[in-house]
Amino acid sequence: MSVLQRNPDIVWRHEKRREAQVLQELEEGGNVEEHGTVILLISGMMHQLNLLGGMIWALCDGTRTETQIVDQLLEEFDVEREVLATDVSEFVADLLQREWLNHG
Q1: Which of 17, 58, 59, 103 has a C-alpha 20 to 30 A away from that of 69?
Q2: Which residues have CB under 8 Å from 72's CB, separation 6+?
Q3: Domain at 4-103: CATH architecture
Q4: Domain chopping of the chain, boundaries
Q5: What DSSP letter does each residue of 52-96 carry, written as one string?
Q6: What is the mean pLDDT of the chain?
């Protein structure tokens, strides 16, 4: 399996303070699916990625396969591997289709 790499034409920013707030809310049992932690600037448009999407995006640095990304995220989240692998696979497939990611 090949490594995943972000499209180098996409400008992005990791909102660390916002991520800390989202992680705190998650620990308190809150629903954080709609809270953005990474901002992408693509063709003059701004897109936000939620916590999991932002973590996946950051890990797509051209050094990891999808399986390795799942392995890394399993260290952060208490979830079944199969559930996380499905979420990662669906997210990556969407970003590949949009050409925001590619296989390195």
Answers
A1: 17
A2: 59, 64
A3: Orthogonal Bundle (1.10)
A4: 4-103
A5: HHHHHHHH-BSS--HHHHHHHHHTT--S-HHHHHHHHHHHHHHHH
A6: 94
